[in-house]
Amino acid sequence: MNETDRESPGPRAWPWLALDALVAAAAFALHPPWLSVSEIEVLGAVHSEPEPLIAAAGVGEGAILIWVDTGRLERAVAADPWVADVRVERVWPDRLVVEVLEREPVAWFEGTTGWMLVASDGTVLEVVSEAGGGHLRAVLAFPDLMPGDRPADPTWNEIVAMAVTLRDDIGGLMTVELRGTELWTEALGHQVRLGYPIDLADKARTLRALLLEDLPPGATIDVSSPLRPAVEGDSPQGAVEATEEQA
What we know:
Layout lengths: L2 H5 L5 H18 L8 E5 L6 H7 L13 H8 L5 E9 L3 E8 L2 E6 L4 E5 L4 E5 L7 E4 L14 H18 L3 E5 L2 E6 L2 E6 L4 H12 L8 E3 L7 E3 L4 H10 L1
Parallel strand pairs: 1-3, 4-7, 7-8, 10-11
Antiparallel strand pairs: 2-3, 4-5, 5-6, 8-9, 9-10, 11-12
Helix pairs in contact: 5-6
C-alpha cells in the first residue's frame, strides 16, 4: 500500500466527514456573526442603572440575539428599586432595546439612623443620611429599611397616599410629625391637625381645597374629620361650607 492510499479516507470515513460539515453549517446558521448583539439601547432610565444589571445577567455586545432570554433580562433590570416596569425587545438584526418605567418619588420618611426616599407605591428607593427637598417629609421614627422594601405598615401607606394626593406643590413644603397621639403638619403658614393616621388621602383633598380659600393668616386648620373640617380663627363660614361640599 503506497503513502497516498494510507492518507485517503476510506468509504467508512465519508459519512463522518459529512456529519462534521453539517454540524459546522448548523452552528454557523444558528450563530451567524451578523445576528450578534452590537448595541444595547436603554430608554427611560433617569435614576435607575440598568447597565450593570444587564452585564451581570451575562448579556453584552457579541451575545447571540436569538438566544437572549428577554424575560430573564427583564427580571434582572427590575431588581433596581427605581424600576416599576421594564420591557426588553429584540430589534433585528443586532440590537436590544431595554425600556424602563421608573417609580415616582413622593415623600421622605425619617428612619432610626437616616432618611428614606419613598415612591408613590410605598417602595423605598434610596436611603441617605440627610433628606433632600421637594417632597413631603414624615418625621415619625420608622425603622430603617432597605431600598426595594415595601412595608405593609398602615401608617406608612396612609402617609404615602397623602403625599400622592397633595403632590409636591403643597406636600413638598410640609413635614408631618406626631404630637401626642395625633399627626400634625404646617401648610402655607397654617398649623394643620390631621388627627389619627387614617383616611389621610381624604384629609389631604380637604386640606388642598381649604388652602385655596381666603383664610386668615395663621389660622389653624382641622381636617381630622375630613367631611367636617374646621378653621380656628376669623375664617369666613363660607370657606368651611364650600370645603364640605367639595369633600
